[in-house]
Amino acid sequence: MSNPIITFATMKIKAILFLSVLLLFNWRFIFAQEALVILQPMTLEACIDYALNNNVAIKQAELNTELSNIDLVQSKTNLLPSINANASHSYNYGRTIDRFTNQFASQKVLSQNLSLSSDITLFGGLQTINAIQQNQFVYLASKYDVDKIKNDISLNVASSYLQILFDIENVESALNQLEITSAQVERTKKNVELGAAAKGALLDIQAQFALEELNHTNAQNSLDISYLSLAQLLNLKLTKSFNIVKPDLAIVNESMLTADVDQIYNTAINNLPEIKSAELKVKSSEKAIDIALGGFSPRLLFSAAYGTGYSGLSKKIVGFPTFQGYAADGSFTSIGDTVFSPVFSNPLTEKNSFVDQYRDNVNKSFGFFLTVPIFNRFQTKLNVDKARIQKLNAELNVKSTKLQLEKIIQQSFVDVICGLKKYNATLKKVAAMKESFKYIEQKFNLGMLNTNEYNDSKNKLAKSESDLLQAKYECVFKSKVLDFYLGKPLKL
Q1: Are strands 109-123 and 363-371 parallel, antiparallel or unpaired?
Q2: Which of 62, 176, 300, 471 pairs as cysteine with 122 (C-beta 3.0–4.6 A)?
Q3: What is the CA radius of gyration of the chain?
Q4: pLDDT tops 90 at residue 149
Q5: How far apart are CA 59 and CA 67, in angstroms?
Q6: How many angstroms separate the CA atoms of 332 and 339, rounded?
Q7: For residues 70 and 138, what is the distance between their CA atoms, to the nearest angstrom?
Q8: Where does residue 51 rank: exposed (0-12), middle (13-18), buried (19+ CB within 10 A)?
Q9: What is the pLDDT of residue 94?
Q10: In DSSP terms, which residues pair with 447 in a beta bridge?
Q11: What are the tens digits of pLDDT across the range 251-266?
Q12: DSSP per position, 394-417
């Protein structure tokens, strides 16, 4: 027969092992999910989605939107009546007048009060209605503010993403230049050993190699910094496995720019959240003026109350007085005879019960209360003046936002056109420089040119290729900005 204690211990050990395996599986699954984000190269769309889901500024803006919604709900509930219940239980020591018996008391007196009151504003210059409409505009504006932050972050992510692509190509170009110079160093070494070249030529080409090593290092450092910038935008821990997808970028030409500046601007002001937010804030400021003007209006309030209470002094008669005979009362007649008066016993009393007093002491009241503002030290007028100034400021903010948007679109459009011209011109220059360098390289290999002439031609080619890269990515980014203002999604 098995020992029950041993059997229980065995079952417990199995349960612990099962839970351990389950937890280990869950941890590995979680780590695998996180690794998917880091190990797999991320596209621009994936980077933007990740940033929008993890950015702290967006989460804070969304919380502000929730607060605005609570303010809106609260302003709506201000239309409802208020209902309050009150209760008190107190003892009084010393001389006082009991409010229920209207008698003087000098001993300890217990008092209890229960009441229920309610009031509602029937008319208050429409301030509550205007406050609801104002908070509605504020809530909608805060939602557009969130969209504005999302758009800004998306553009920043796109800019950082393209900067990485530029740095990758720049590193590849620097490495290519380094490999060409490395081959020339080896060739020059052999020529020096054979006596076909002077030692100074080798020193010059080695100096060029050292310079290009530095250029390659600088380019790699720029790439690392760009990766760090993108990771910080994504709120993602930077690791060696973090990488992005390198798409084939298409350079737009002028014929592909089907929309002109005015069309892009008109589309943008109808769709961009910052414009809608600014316009809603103007409407909110208009309602603020109406609320301030409501301060000049009379206020009509309806109030009602129901209450009862208990007093320790309250008594009721339970027995009537009885005749006990006659007794001299200390007075005399006109002839000197003693006056006798009837004597009665005191009536019998007892304290009123809680139930009886709560029933008998019920009091009800209701009434209308009108308040007419006559003079409040010009506070209402000053509030109206401030609200009107804030409205003017909100209108100017709309104009400023539209002007800023127009400048950005005009600048981006001109940048795309100029960038295309620069790119095409630089493309021709690079092609010519490559042909020229091939010719100079051949002459250098034959000993017909010195090292300085070779290095000068090579550096000019590297500079032209760098200018071409810069023109390419400037043109791509500005064209994406124009697409963004046309309502197109950011993608490569």
Answers
A1: unpaired
A2: 300
A3: 45
A4: yes
A5: 13
A6: 5
A7: 11
A8: buried
A9: 65
A10: none
A11: 766 655 667 889 999 9
A12: HHHHHHHHHHHHHHHHHHHHHHHH
State the average pLDDT over residues 190-211: 84
Other C-beta atoms closer than 10 Å to the C-beta of 222 total 16
Using the 8-state DSSP alphabet, how is residue 188 labeled?
Answer: H
460 has pLDDT over 80: yes
Q: Which residue has the tokens 């020096």?
A: 192
Q: What angle do CA 29, 31, 35 make, to 5 degrees?
A: 115
3-state helix, strand, coil in the chain (%, to 5): 65, 15, 20
Intra-chain end-to-end CA distance of the chain, in Å: 74
Residues of the chain with CATH 1.20.1600.10: 46-80+120-297+352-485
| Buried/exposed 170-183: b ≥16 CB within 10 Å, e otherwise | bbebbeebbebbee
pLDDT digits (tens, 9 = 90+) for 349-364: 667 778 888 888 889 9
Q: Which residues pair with 87 in a beta bridge?
A: 114
Structure tokens at 476: 């791509």
Rounded-to-integer distance, Cα 461 and Cα 273, Å: 45
Is 0.85 surpassed by the pTM of this model?
Answer: no
- Assess contact for 174 and 219: CB atoms under 8 A: yes
What is the dihedral sign for C-alpha 277, 283, 289, 294? negative
Model confidence at 25, pLDDT cuts 50, 70, 90, reads very low
| CA–CA gap between residue 233 and residue 52 (Å, rounded) | 10
State the virtual CA torsion across 211, 216, 219, 220 in degrees, nearest 10.
Answer: -140
Exposed/middle/buried for 302, CB within 10 Å: 0-12, 13-18, 19+? middle
| Spatial contact of 465 and 430, defined as CB atoms under 8 Å apart | yes
Minimum mean pLDDT range among 81-85, 126-130, 351-355? 351-355
Q: Is 447 helix (H, G, I), strand (E, B) or coil?
A: coil
The winner for highest mean pLDDT among 36-40, 141-145, 207-211 is: 141-145
- Residue 374 is encoded by which pair of tokens? 């006559």
CATH class of 46-80+120-297+352-485: mainly alpha
**154 — phi, psi (to 5°)?**
-60, -45
Q: Give the separation between CA 289 and CA 366, rounded to whole angstroms.
A: 34
